[in-house]
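Record type: monomer structure entry
Structure origin: computed from sequence
Chain ID: A
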Amino acid sequence: MAFRGKEMMKKLVKKVGAETLTPELKEKLKACVPDSKVVMGRAKRGLYAGRHIQYGNRVSEDGGNKSRRCWKPNVQEKRLFSYIFDRHIKVKVTTHALRCIDKAGGIDEYLLKTPYQKMDTEMGLFWKTKVEQRYAELGQMEVAFFNPEDEAKFEQGFKDLNIAKKDARREARKEARRKLYGDKSGEEKGEGECSLEAGGSELHHDDHGWLEANA
């Protein structure tokens, strides 16, 4: 079902946040999504990179009879990792969009390099606005630089921390195995000692009987 671009603009501003949206980004969105633009309903479901349903005719081989048909894009549901958000983004994409993302170098680079005029989906505009907003926030943050000696110390500290975590996990596994198999071995050992005692007493009784018979 088609809907007007004005409704999509309202949804984008509501999702991103009207308070945190900069005037420059709002102007770009308004220029990309005019109020009179008609957008297909599939545009709000994923990243299609210009691929939509196409219509044509199916022509028979014998008589050349034509019947209407459609070609749907190859849409896949993928989890794409975003470095700027440090998490996976679950989104529906076409195979053409996946090739464009690989060529750009990732989902973040694809969203930043693709202009607003070519980003014709609601989800694409939403994530592009979020990425640009995140980059603007990171640009205002203060950056601290360390000398090579401090960086080497930090790297060694991370290595020691990873080694300590591995040792702790190894000790925990050993303790779990000791609790799991130690009790069973103790029970088996106790049963073995009882059987040996019972067998020894039987042997003693047999020896006494044999001596009495010979006497």
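Annotation 1: The beta strands are 3-4, 38-39, 46-47, 54-59, 66-71, 75-82, 87-94.
Annotation 2: The helical segments are 5-16, 23-32, 95-104, 107-113, 122-139, 148-214.
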